[in-house]
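To: structure subgroup
Subject: Chain for Friday's discussion

All,

I'm putting the inputs and outputs inline so they're searchable in the archive.
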Amino acid sequence: MAEAAALEDATIHGSVESRGSWRAAFVILAMLSFSFGSPLLIVVGMKPMQEALGVERAVVALAGALVWIGTGAGGILMGWLADRIGVRRTVMIGACMIASGLALSATGSITALYIGQGLMVGFLGSGGVYPPLLVYVSRWFDRRRGTAIALISSGQYIAGVLWPSVFERGIAGFGWQAVMLTWGAVVLVVLLPLTLLLRQAPVPPVPPRAAGATKRGRARVAGLHPNVAQALLCVAGFCCCVPMSVPQAHLIAFCSDIGINPARSAVMLSVMLAAAFIARQAWGALADRVGGLRTILAGSSFQAVAIASFLLTQDEAGLFAVSAAFGLGFAGIIPAYSVAIRDLFPSGEASWRMPLTLFTAMGGMAFGSWFAGYLYDHFGYYAPAFGIGVGFNALNLTLIGFLIARTGGFRRAPAWPAAA
């Protein structure tokens, strides 16, 4: 009754936001702080897994890449499923699949690792958790949507702060297989009870002017056919996530190669993701003021400078500073894509447009993670991977700049109404 009253009051005042909106956001933040720990197992355990399995680094990196591309591809299917069976059941399925995938990966064969990570942890697991919850929370907010999306997406960075050092100590003491099995059990114990707190997102009546805008707005987006604008966003997302993935997937291995011990390397990854967590809230507030596209441009520009800086130092103190700067830069980019989709397209299309954009972005994460491993195996060091990242970042800035020019330059265009 209290939630219904809050929703009614919010609707009367022209907004879907209420105290229930923020409760939903913080529940989702807690869930993602655990579910995002699963991909970090490959990042932290890359060298021990490579040595135990007797394979090249690119082979293990590909397993981590499959999680990202699986999450994106699975989000399209699971977003569709969430609209039919509800977000609670979809997330329950995802949690069970993450745990099952980690258990399969822990059996110790390359085939089991690829199926466990790509299909189960990624496609059916994280794909059933993150993209549906992202769409879900976007429907709870209209005035502070960017802030809310940034908040829940920060679960990735809370996971990055909390778990790498724990995983590193566990792998050193008990082995990577035992840590995978244990973490699968933790995901189940935490996520399944939290799904019971998810409620139906508000669906207020569509005001007449919003309904009319929907009919007119389908014709052109940024002066382009809507699907052309969508395609440009997807390509831009791929390009920005290639450089984004290289330090996130290879920082610990990179530091270890140049003589920094694994424990310090894990702390460096945590520093990067802690900086990203702190900055993400500011990026979310910026997106509420200037829109998603302009926030992407600012974050991507910052990221380009930081990724180039990895080419300039191998000093431990310098790498700590560069890692923190990189975290500050890339923090707001992915949530800003979700805000851009809601700015440019109606809410009814969010359940497939947002996961599709995430799919291509995570495809970039997957490609960047694997390709950096491939370049390392070929050259024996990581400088070519960082250099390729700078090139992809430049292409992203070109595409986003083009879309901004088509949507009024640096003056924010009107966003779609919450219920449109």
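Points worth raising on Friday:
Residues 1-12, 207-217 have pLDDT under 50 and may be disordered.
Residues 296 and 333 are 5 Å apart (CA to CA).

D.
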